[in-house]
Fold this sequence. Notes:
This protein has helices spanning 2-13, 23-26, 46-76, 141-152, 199-207, and strands spanning 77-81, 101-105, 119-123, 162-170, 174-177, 185-187, 190-191, 228-232, 237-241, 263-264, 268-277, 283-284. It has 292 residues and is α+β, with helices and mostly antiparallel strands.
Amino acid sequence: MADNNSSDNESAAGSSPDGSSSRAEEYGWDPDGEHPDERPWRTKSDKPEKRGSVLREAVIIIGCVLLLTWVLQTFVGRQYVIPSESMEQTLHGCTGCTNDRIVIDKITYRFGDPSPGDVVVFKAPSESWDGAWMSPRSDNAVVNGMQDVLSWFGFAPPDENDLVKRVIATGGQTVECRNAENVGVKVDGKPLAEPYVDKALQAQDVAAGNILAATPDGQPNSCYGPDFGPVKVPEGNVWVMGDNRANSADSRFHMEDEYHGTVPISDIRGKVRFIIYPFSRIGGVGSYNPQQ
Length: 292
């Protein structure tokens, strides 16, 4: 009796009477000894589940990275490329050269207004500022939409004409310049101290043929351009000028628009904080109050 029972047990643990695999083999159990409850549960669906898990994790990680990037680009800071030489020597930009890459701070002006001396990036407030600017967007509707989405995450430029200048005067102040006075730009009747204006560079601009910034004897004039003002800056606006004064189409050249050349604070995208490229020029961009 004992031998018969033993034979029956072996048959149950091994193969079915018709020679097919037992359920233990079908589900991956070891038919040679261990009870299925004593082994990890292995089924044929394990590998697909693992692949699905990896895919879900990848989607979650990418989604979190994109969300973080969007938050940073929208509320904290953004990268821009300097398009021209109007802010030299503070910021470099020119055709065919390695233009500065800068990062702006978007938080500061959520808690306060721009101050004289701040270097800011702003959206062109009127068509007068656009000049030869052309939208970077494709004429293809699908590609255009993709570019809009990419711009949310900083992978494409925004569809707007962004410029960079230095704040010279703020709301309520009056700005002007008279070459005959030979004292340079004045705010509320007081001449400014502007160490960020490179006089040697202005002389080069005049020598290159900028007659608007030249005296009759061919030297840079005190305004580094034609007379302007007086202009009283409206509340909520600022007056901006380039550091490369003789080569900057700044507030002076847009006094016929609806803002009289000034820039609404609502159009300012942020305060320039750092140069991040090229590596040889990495560093901070400071503010110097010319009215002090």
